[in-house]
């Protein structure tokens, strides 16, 4: 019964998406094209000219693409865990309306997370197709890399949903984007190996879930070993998702429970 109620929440998101899919589909396609063109081909030509030894013998575009896959997925997950959540709680009051049905706060949290995971999966597959067209990935390996990328996206969606559900206004979301999401996207191994950071900073990466997702995605896409243990990377990504999910359910229940 609880599972079917949660799926009703997912259905509600899907019905609403029928009216907004054109705008998001355009950005889903254009974003990887722009990033791979500017950073992979543009900046990549300069990096390849210097042939940085830290890229495992591949060109910069090939090395960059899996990191961007995980980083973009993280941003998608963070986005779905922020403004849509506070809109449902505070602005549109759709969550209040839903609670007048058999739907409970936990169903809203899990339904939003499930929908965000589906969206992240679709966006990641599109990204892999674009990267394949650029010659930056092999399609089969790229699809394998979708798994850790989507798991990372789901973890960030759940964790940020937990934070958002406790906010009284959207002002805190700007700080989350500015001081958490953007720095992680830039410095968690997406654009350059964290080993190139100063020694007193590089160790922080082991506590950053995005870096573990990037390492898994890159290793699967390139067919190489990640920096560090496979088991540690998987444990951090999965653990972050589980803890984030439990925290989001608790936050939704505290904010919306009647």
Task: Tell me the layout of helices and strands.
Layout: H1 2-17, H2 21-50, H3 60-80, H4 83-91, H5 94-98, H6 105-133, H7 139-164, H8 171-187, H9 199-202, H10 209-222, H11 230-256
Helix pairs in contact: 1-6, 2-3, 2-6, 3-6, 3-7, 3-8, 3-10, 6-7, 6-11, 7-10, 7-11, 10-11
Please provide a written account of the structure.
The chain is mainly alpha-helical and 258 residues long. It has one domain (2-256). The chain is 77% helix and 0% strand. It is built from 11 helices and no strands. The longest helix has 30 residues, at 21-50. The two termini are 20 Å apart. The model has no long low-confidence stretch (mean pLDDT 90).
Key phrases:
single chain; 258 residues; mainly alpha; 11 helices; 77% helix; 0% strand
Low-confidence stretches: none
Radius of gyration: 19 Å
Given helix and strand content, the structural type is mainly alpha
**Oligomer, anyone?**
single chain
What is the mean pLDDT? Answer: 90
As a percent range, the share of helical residues equals over 70%
The fraction of residues assigned to DSSP E strands is under 5%
Give a quick precis of the structure.
The protein is mainly alpha-helical. The protein has eleven helices and no strands.
């Amino acid at each position: 019964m609880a599972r079917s109620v949660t799926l009703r929440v997912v259905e509600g998101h899907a019905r609403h998406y029928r009216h907004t899919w054109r705008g998001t589909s355009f950005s889903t396609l254009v974003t990887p094209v722009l990033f791979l063109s500017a950073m992979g081909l543009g900046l990549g030509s300069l990096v390849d000219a210097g042939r940085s030894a830290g890229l495992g013998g591949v060109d910069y575009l090939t090395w960059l693409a899996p990191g961007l896959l995980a980083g973009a997925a993280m941003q998608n997950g963070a986005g779905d865990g922020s403004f849509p959540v506070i809109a449902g709680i505070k602005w549109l009051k759709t969550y209040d309306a839903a609670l007048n049905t058999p739907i409970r706060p936990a169903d809203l949290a899990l339904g939003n997370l499930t929908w965000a995971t589906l969206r992240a999966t679709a966006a990641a597959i599109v990204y892999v197709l674009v990267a394949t067209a650029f010659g930056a990935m092999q399609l089969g390996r790229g699809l394998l890399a979708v798994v850790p990328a989507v798991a990372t996206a789901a973890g960030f969606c759940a964790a940020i949903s937990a934070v958002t559900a406790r906010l009284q206004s959207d002002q805190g979301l700007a700080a989350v984007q500015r001081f958490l999401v953007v720095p992680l996207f830039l410095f968690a191994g997406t654009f350059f190996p964290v080993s190139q950071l100063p020694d007193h900073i590089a160790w922080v990466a082991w506590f950053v879930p995005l870096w573990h997702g990037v390492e898994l995605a890159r290793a699967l896409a390139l067919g190489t070993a990640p920096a560090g243990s496979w088991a540690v990377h998987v444990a951090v990504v999965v653990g972050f998702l589980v803890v984030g999910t439990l925290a989001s359910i608790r936050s939704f229940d505290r904010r919306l429970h009647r």
